[in-house]
Amino acid sequence: MTGPHVAIEPSILYLGTPVVLISTLNEDGTANVAPMSSAWWLGWRAMLGLQTASQTPQNLIRTGECVLNLATVEQVAAVNKLARLTGTKAMPELKQRLGYAYEPRKFEVAGLTPIASDTVAVPRVLECPIHLEAVLAERHDMMADDPQVAGLISAFEVRITRVHVRPDLLMDGHENRIDPAKWQPLIMNFQKLYGVSNIEAAPSRLAEIEEKSYHMPDIDRAREDMLAAVG
């Protein structure tokens, strides 16, 4: 018995991930910002899946820095304005076929405001409620076992060095905890944009574990780096 499921071959497996506006610095010192959604976190590390030849990963490889600006439904218009723009003059053939356009002034076009970061030279996006400053730790080539696409996609492991959060997202009585009922990330779900409900589906057994139990050394390292920078 095979059960009620059917076997299919979807071209993409974007099963729902948060939308990130990732900011980087171009070679001429100007800021680049681009939407991406192949991102996930563990501790104070993030994995970012990007097309290697695009402007954002090339900036990340060159400078070793970025800021992950997390979007909500309030930033949908900006996300859509940026969705098919690229900061790369020599546009890859795939992006040409998909109708991308070259645009070096992405912050201005999207109506976003760059503000200074604390630990990296890359600006943050004022309008986003959460900013994660980060430095590149490792680059991992994906699909390297397939000669047809080897080198086209990379997974970048970044280490978070500073977290900025809008105060109204904090859990009452806690200075270092984001309230999941208040934080509603914008989700990319099979190329479509969705908001998140603030209604908890059911009590979570994992939530019974104190959040500070997951404290990782990267947090102490980031604090030490920050103190060294201002001292």
Fold blueprint:
Layout: E1 17-18, E2 20-25, E3 31-36, E4 39-42, E5 45-51, H1 55-63, E6 65-70, H2 76-82, E7 85-86, H3 93-97, E8 101-102, H4 106-110, E9 114-115, E10 124-125, E11 130-142, E12 153-165, E13 187-189, E14 192-194, H5 217-230
Parallel strand pairs: 7-8
Antiparallel strand pairs: 1-13, 2-3, 2-6, 4-5, 5-12, 6-11, 9-10, 11-12, 13-14
Describe the structure.
- The mean pLDDT is 91.
- The strands form four sheets. The protein has a seven-stranded antiparallel beta sheet. Strands 1-13-14 form a three-stranded antiparallel beta sheet, with no helix packed on it.
- With 231 residues, the chain is of the alpha+beta class.
- The longest helix is centred in the last third of the chain and has 14 residues, at 217-230.
- The chain has one domain: Pnp Oxidase, Chain A (Roll).
- It is globular.
- The chain has helices spanning 55-63, 76-82, 93-97, 106-110, 217-230, and strands spanning 17-18, 20-25, 31-36, 39-42, 45-51, 65-70, 85-86, 101-102, 114-115, 124-125, 130-142, 153-165, 187-189, 192-194.
